[in-house]
Amino acid sequence: MVKVTISHPGETIVDEITALVPQPTVPATAPIPKIGIVEIGEIQPTQLIPGPPGPQGPRGSRWTTGNGPPSTTSGFVTGDMYLDDATDNVWTFDGTAWTNTGTNIGGSPDTGAQILTKLAPVDGTGSGLDSDLLDGQHGAYYSAWANLTGVPATFPPTLPIPESGVTNLVSDLALKAPLASPGLTGVPTAPTASPGTSTTQIASTAFVGAGLAGKLDSSTAATTYAPINAPVFTGDARAVTPASNDNDTSIATTAFVQTGLSVKIGDAPNDGVQYVRQSLAWTPVSVPPGTAISDTPPASPVVGQLWWQSSTGALFLWYNDGSSSQWVQVNTTGSTGRLELSLFAGGTLSTNEVLFRYEFTSAATLPAGLTGSQGSSGTAATGSPALSIRKNGTQFATATWSGTEPTFAAASATSFAINDVLSVVAPSTADATLADVNISLVGTPN
């Protein structure tokens, strides 16, 4: 840089003009280059004539802000900066893409030690700071027993403390053997007692082996011990005497035999009554009369008595089901294509009494209207009582009495499968005179 002073005789036009003039270095005698023309006139000796304007320079960098990282590159040039208001991160544009500079203007410039020094004067309860808390609580919080977990409910705890009040105690004890009658598993071990010990101490296998050593070997076994299979004892062999009523393969000692002989009973009485042996005594047995053969049932049957109906070839059993007695057919008659179920209920009928119950062992069908079925009564009905005929408890037919004869009614044929149950139930209102009812239901096997 050089300083140039321009003057005019008798008048100072410009006191001083400072301009930047390139200084030549090689060669040293090179003339100073011209940097411009100054026109000096007498009318306006101090007016400078400006030259033409030069080209516009490039735009400088500018700042923009937004909520989140920059999302567009349109309208930005190299050097532009962006501030993310959400994170306080600073981004720069390189002409193609935005780059996070790693600068965050929201953070504190202080170091951790400097921050701690500044917080110390305002620390403590009520300060709103968490710098001296444990899990969000001040020390005083943990001085209250109720705020602690994994401890007994009260302090000092109530004694004795239950097993459930100690963590894992119940499950750990379950893995231990009790002192009384322990059921040990695996290969439990115990200290080996000294030879000759005769106490309740556990005898280990080592103790037993040492005690048997020399007492049982091939040279003494045959003369000292009896074989398991067909042993022959000598001398005064003894065994445990079984109970007097024992009846199995236990050894019968002389005491057992003598006890048995002392209570031996004699023969059954010779009085024409049949007896059986029961509880070391003779007990009479009630034998039903023989089988009655007639067209009509016997007048005074007993439970278990048989009656063969000579007119049809049907065999009946006088059966008591716990609430009533009736004749129950125990055979089939006629061709294999016919099914007959017969019942007889002696005496008058009780309200809703189950007179007959039959469980099918093979499939069969009863026709509509119960065609072919018959019935009668020993005593005529006063009114018109109707017996309910049911399948598995649901009524499908009726037998309505008039005098001594019933009229059967069934809306449609009814099929029975194996294990289906047919039952006949007395009227819900008992008839005063209807008695000794007999019904024979006819159907066909399926």
SSE-based structural type:
mainly beta
Overall geometric form: flat
Tell me the helix content.
under 10%
Approximate strand percentage: 25-35%
CATH second-level architecture of the domain at 297-445: Sandwich
Helix-strand topology string = EEEEEEHHHHHEEEEEEEEEEEEEEEE
Task: Using the coordinates above, name the CATH class of the domain at 297-445.
Answer: Mainly Beta
**What number is the mean pLDDT?**
80
**CATH fold group of the domain at 297-445:** Jelly Rolls
* Largest β sheet strand count, sense and barrel closure: 9 strands, mixed
What does this structure look like?
This protein is 8% helix and 26% strand. It starts with a strand and ends with a strand. The protein is flat. The protein has helices at 112-119, 169-174, 205-212, 221-224, 254-262; strands at 2-4, 17-19, 63-66, 81-84, 89-93, 98-104, 275-278, 281-284, 292-294, 306-309, 314-320, 325-329, 339-348, 354-359, 364-366, 374-379, 386-391, 394-402, 405-410, 414-416, 421-425, 435-445. The strands form 5 sheets. Strands 9, 10, 11, 12, 13, 15, 16, 20 and 22 form a 9-stranded mixed beta sheet that branches. It has a 5-stranded antiparallel beta sheet with strand order 14-21-17-18-19, with no helix packed on it. The protein has a 4-stranded mixed beta sheet with strand order 3-4-5-6, with no helix packed on it. Among the domains are: 1-49, no CATH class; 297-445, Sandwich (Jelly Rolls), CATH 2.60.120. The protein is built from 5 helices and 22 strands. It is mainly β and 446 residues long.
